[in-house]
Specification:
heterodimer; A: about 200 residues; alpha+beta; Protein Transport Mog1p, Chain A; nine-stranded antiparallel sheet; 9 strands; about 20% helix; about 40% strand; disordered N terminus; B: about 400 residues; Serine Threonine Protein Phosphatase 5, Tetratricopeptide repeat; three-stranded mixed sheet; elongated
């Protein structure tokens, strides 16, 4: 059994390392051609193989340790994440995914992210929700904790979301509560503060 | 959240313990199930001794022991001495002489499932506890799991997987860990055979009736679950849901369990059950709402309210789901539920919040402010107090 598990793990790691695309990002970056941010310290942009997600995902230390997700110009009716192709069993309807709708109130926007981070069975608790400006628009900033289902790690997160001309702009940062979150949050915030909508 | 090899391996380890109840299906075994006499079920009289470490069964126990050590530290475990004692006592009534070997762990996961490992580790998910209507229904599920344990089905499954090199399936499941619904699919990949499920159904019925429960409640469990499964699986969900891939089709399973149950003698233990879960139930309802699977949740909440129209927690939960879904008629439905629940003597503070948000959407400023102020009065330290105060400031003339 042990040998089989080791062999399986090797195959999985080979699969992941072969297909995950990681590129360095620094300087001015534009997300989805609609939101510009200035990156002082270099980050790693991670693109998973297969289904394209509607957000950019960046990390400092690796995705199991931290991630900064950036959404720009999400249209009404568009989901905040997409199920990987083939993940829905034959004959089944795909489960709901958090979807942006025009005219959502700030509390409803926060709920979208709460559901998104709960989707894998993780426990999500909102710890602070308050009005804020993001990308030059009135919106909301929210803090939350996540107990991650996959490995029981306790994480802290922060999110920012606003709307402009019927489109959603947002960012979330998540990292383990111990050490990583306090160390990396200032780097994430320094990017988020520079967010500007284009067009 | 990203899929991780760690998560996948853990999922396998967890799945190796069991599977089940929430998830089943089978065809060929059904006639046998229907004709069996539950009282004639042979049960191992003696407790299981720990298998030798060098055997495959010993290795499996070792893996499960390590998983249980991890589980004991997990933040997902509900640490409530009284609730655990209640469940442990229930398991002892079902398991008889095997009671000292079975350890119950309540795991905070809003899905219908319970699992049992060959080393005696039983996991009961909070989604099952939320959905069970009484002690007899929970006994039916846990009795089924104990049936797998008593017949060492996991060991047979492990040997079967090895002989058929079915570990390719295991590898294929990495990367699927994402939506919570997929956890069920992951579980299904390692589910017991239909024959095992049929045997476990029969043994479970035997155990619950021996403990004095109304056996017909076992059929009700599946009837209730079917309503939720139809949301994503359509009318044929009971036959082809991936969660039920190796279990009998739900409709026929229900019918066969009813035949096995016989007359209506036995207790349901509804009052005892409600008391046992009372402290946690509201939190579990909120976990269910956070799943974001609104249609499934509405089936559940409608069922809870059909059973008890004065269930203020379920009324709030349904109103909140309508508000969050925000469909064509949902705002009015939400308003109806939340207006009713806030008229109760001690409604949840969250009901005032939800009502205020609905009134704000309806542009009824004064009513919204009134509800928000009641919310902040009941929950002054609420996480979203800053946002709500801002709403009040915007709405006040």
């Amino acid at each position: 059994m042990k040998k089989i598990l080791i062999a399986s793990s090797v195959l999985v790691l080979a699969f992941l390392s072969g297909c995950m695309s990681i590129t360095k990002v620094e300087g001015e970056q534009v997300v989805n051609n609609r939101m510009a941010v200035k990156v002082a310290d270099a980050w790693n942009k991670v693109s998973a193989p297969g289904t394209k997600q509607p957000f950019d995902m960046w990390t400092q230390e690796g995705l199991t340790l931290d991630h900064l997700r950036l959404w720009a110009a999400v249209k009404p009716g568009q989901a905040l994440l997409v199920h990987p192709a083939g993940s829905v069993p034959m004959g089944q309807k795909a489960p709901r995914v958090p979807t942006y709708e025009a005219g959502m109130q700030p509390d409803q926007l926060v709920s979208l992210f709460e559901v998104m981070y709960s989707a894998d069975g993780s426990i999500v608790n909102m710890t602070k929700v308050e009005p804020a400006v993001f990308a030059g628009e009135k919106g909301v900033r929210f803090e939350f904790s996540v107990t991650r289902k996959g490995d029981d790690v306790l994480l802290n997160g922060v999110g920012w979301v606003s709307q402009s001309k019927g489109e959603l702009f947002a960012a979330t940062f998540l990292a383990p509560k111990l050490s990583f979150f306090p160390r990396l949050l200032p780097k994430a915030e320094s990017i988020v503060r520079t967010a500007q909508i284009r067009g | 959240m990203t899929a991780s090899a760690t998560g996948g391996r853990r999922a396998f380890l967890r799945s190796a313990c069991k599977h089940c109840v929430g998830m089943g299906a089978l065809l060929p075994g059904l006639p046998a199930l229907a004709q069996d006499n539950a009282a004639a079920s042979p049960l191992p009289a003696e407790r299981f001794a720990r298998p030798a470490l060098e055997t495959d069964e010993g290795g499996l126990w070792g893996m499960m022991d390590r998983e249980e050590t991890r589980l004991r530290r997990s933040p997902f475990v509900v640490r409530d001495v009284e609730l655990n004692k209640y469940l442990q006592d229930l398991v002892c009534r079902l398991g008889g002489d095997h009671c000292p070997d079975i350890r119950v762990h309540v795991v905070r996961t809003p899905l219908f499932n319970a699992t049992m490992a060959p080393n005696g580790m039983m996991q009961v998910w909070t989604g099952l506890l939320l959905r069970a209507e009484n002690e007899a229904q929970l006994a039916a599920v846990l009795g089924h799991e104990i049936g797998h344990y008593l017949e060492r089905h996991t060991l047979e499954r492990l040997r079967d997987l090895r002989s058929r090199a079915a570990f390719a399936q295991f590898i294929g499941m990495f990367g699927l860990v994402g939506a919570i619904g997929q956890l069920g699919a992951l579980a299904g990949a390692f589910a017991f055979s239909r024959e095992h499920e049929t045997r476990a159904d029969r043994l479970g019925m035997h155990l619950m009736k021996r403990a004095g429960y109304d056996g017909r409640q076992a059929a009700q469990v599946w009837d209730n679950l079917l309503g939720e499964l139809k949301i994503t699986g359509g009318e044929d969900a009971g036959k082809r849901s991936p969660m039920m891939a190796t279990h009998p089709p739900l409709e026929s399973r229900r019918d066969d369990l009813l035949k096995l149950a016989g007359d209506a003698s036995g207790i349901t233990g509804a009052a005892e059950y409600n008391q046992a879960i009372a402290r946690h139930r509201f939190g579990w309802l909120q976990d269910e709402i956070r799943r974001g699977q609104f249609e499934e949740s509405l089936v559940l909440f409608n069922r809870l309210l059909a059973r008890n129209p004065l269930d203020s927690q379920a009324l709030y939960a349904r109103g909140e789901v309508y508000r969050l879904r925000a469909g064509k008629e949902d705002l009015q439905e939400s308003l109806n539920d939340l207006t009713r629940v806030t008229a109760f003597e001690q409604p949840p503070a969250e009901a005032y919040r939800a009502l205020g948000l609905v009134q704000k959407q309806r542009t009824d400023g004064p009513s919204a402010v009134q509800a928000f102020e009641k919310y902040l009065s009941a929950a002054p330290d609420a996480a979203d107090s800053g946002l709500i105060k801002n709403y009040i400031a915007e709405l006040k003339p």
